Amino acid sequence: MNLRLTPTTMPVSVRPTMPGGRSTGQVIGAESEGFSGALKSALGSVSAAQNDATRLQKEVQLENPNVSLEETMVAIQKAQIGFTATLHVRNRMVQAYTDIMNMQV
Fold it and tell me: What is the radius of gyration, based on Cα positions, of the chain?
């Protein structure tokens, strides 16, 4: 499974600079923080998706006529996909750390 990000699969906020004023290669709002800023931003968006899904679930359970079941199920799936992707990134980072720590100097 290839989890590498290419300019076409990256989120819009982290795409590399292209001629004509398109997306920049830096995360918006975290230009000076680099990788840690991008990671915090990604974790924040996953957390927001989970909170939104939870809120919609509660609204459906309270039978709010303004919230549809379809909208709720899509939000739940988005949150689940984001969490799974975050889990894969964490596992890759832990594996990389373990590999580096086991290297002989």
Answer: 18
